[in-house]
Structures are given as structure tokens and as C-alpha cells.
Amino acid sequence: MSAITSTFRRQFSRAVVGGIAIALATVGAGHAQTVRTIKIATSAESKPLAWGAIGVEPQGYEPDLLKAINAKLPQYKFEMEGVADIAQETGLATGKYDMAVGGYYKSDARMKQFLIPENPEGASLMKIYSKKDSGIKEMKDLVGKQIVPVTAGGGTYKFMMGWQDQNPGYKLNVTASNAGVPYPNRLNEIQQGKYDALVLPSNLGEQTVIDQQKLDIVASEPVSINNTFVLIHKSDENKVLADDVNKVLKELKDDGTVAKLSQKWFGEDISTYMK
């Protein structure tokens, strides 16, 4: 074999090996950079839980928590969009969104329809809001009082009806309403004496309204506590997403992130109530 032929073969072999190495590296890099976009529906008008109109980046407790989750899961890119409450679950069921957050309780119906991580994303603390001198501290104290009407079929209505069923000896004057009057207006109605008390989850920003408007109103200790959960569109592909989110939710509770965010947005540490 001539020196020229030998040299050519060595150079050819190096070129082939080098080309294969570059190709494999390129394929590996492309694989490593694959990031799945996750479309998320958040509440559009539930400050401080979450708010932000279409085209505006959502703000609040849940958007901040989602950002913390995404930071631990770089294989996903979370894209949040503020959506009217009535459209969130519909969009999730049809697959328009991969995830939804909105202070959701876990129910049999939702567990059949969606994937729900075992670890909660927050806690809804049902409280009674009344004037400081009212003496109202628990549900039994509402007997004979004028209670602000509650949304028909809503979580508060279901809670109050359930409490009434379990405590038949205490008759409450509960009325349902479809008026959709904002809770700041309702708090002012208590201040003015139109009603004696308002029963609502405390994660809607009531305390901020009370402080800003200097209302003579106080909140009771929680009369009911419900964990709230992330809902995920049910599909085989999203089973891994649900497992990943579940794992990170526990980490964020254990490392104090949930406590820090809830203190920032709600003025209290809801993580102590999360079971």
C-alpha cells in the first residue's frame, strides 16, 4: 500500500468518525432542548388569587406559584392566560388548556373528568366577616342574623347548606342570589348595617379591602377549610405532567415557598392548613 493511499484512508476515517460524532451531538442537543408548552387557564378577576385580562400577564398567588413550579420543571414552558371562571373548566375539558387553577376543590365529578395531583396548591379558608362589635365568631352565632346572599350553587352556598343539614338545631337565614354583586360592595353593606355578616373564602382579597377602606369589619377564624388543587386535562401525555407537578408542589410546600407566597398575597400562611 502506498503512503498516499494510507494517508487518504486515515484522513477519510477521521472525517467519517468526526461527522458521526457531530451528527450525534446535534441530535442529542436537539433532544435535550425539546420543551413542551403547557397552556394554563387562570382566573381573570379573583384578586389576589389570580387576575389578568386576556393579553395581560396574570398576577397573584396562583400565577406566582405556577412560575415557581415551572422553575423546577425546565422541560415545560408554562403559558398562562386569564380566563373568565365560567370558561375555565370548559376549556380544560376540551383540551384548549392543559391546566387550570382557580381555587378549585377536589370533587368526584372533577376526579372523573380531569387529572388532579394529590398534593394541593393552596387552601381555601371559609371565614365570617362582620362588624367588630357583632359578637359573631362561629356559624352558630349567625342564627337570627341577616346574612349576605350567596351565589346559588357556589361553594359557599354548598358549605352553608351542608352545615345546616349537620346542625338542624340552628336555623340560618340563607338566601341564594344570582346578582353577582362584588364582595367589596358586600363588605360595605355590612359596614352600613344592611347585613350582619358575609361568609366567603378569605383568599379573594377581603382583608385588603377592609384595610384600604378602613372598614370596621373583622374576619373570624376559619369555619371550614378546603384544600385547593390544580386541574389537568385528562390525556395519556398529561399523566407525566400531573406526576411532575405533584412532586414539585410537595417540594414547594416543604421548602417554605408556599408559605412565603401566601403571606405575600393573602397576609397569612395558608400552608399550615394544607393537609
Verbal overview:
- The chain is of the alpha/beta class and 275 residues long.
- Helices cover 42% and strands 22% of the residues.
- The protein has nine helices and twelve strands.
- The strands form three sheets. Strands 1, 4, 5, 6, 7, 10, 11 and 12 form an eight-stranded mixed beta sheet that branches.
- Strand 8, helix 5 (155-166) and strand 9 form a beta-alpha-beta unit.
- Helix 2 packs antiparallel against helix 9 (257-266).
- The longest helix has 30 residues, at 3-32.
Q: What's the helix count? A: 9
Order of helices and strands: HEEEHEHEHEEEHEHEHEEHH
Residue-averaged pLDDT? 88
Compute the gyration radius: what is it? Answer: 26 Å
Q: Poorly predicted ranges (pLDDT <50, ≥5 residues)?
A: none
> Which structural category do the helix and sheet elements fall into?
alpha/beta
Biggest sheet statistics: 8 strands, mixed
End-to-end CA span: 78 Å
Q: What share of the residues lie within helices?
A: 40-55%
Identify the overall geometry.
elongated
In terms of DSSP E residues, the strand content is: 15-25%
| Total beta-strand segments | 12
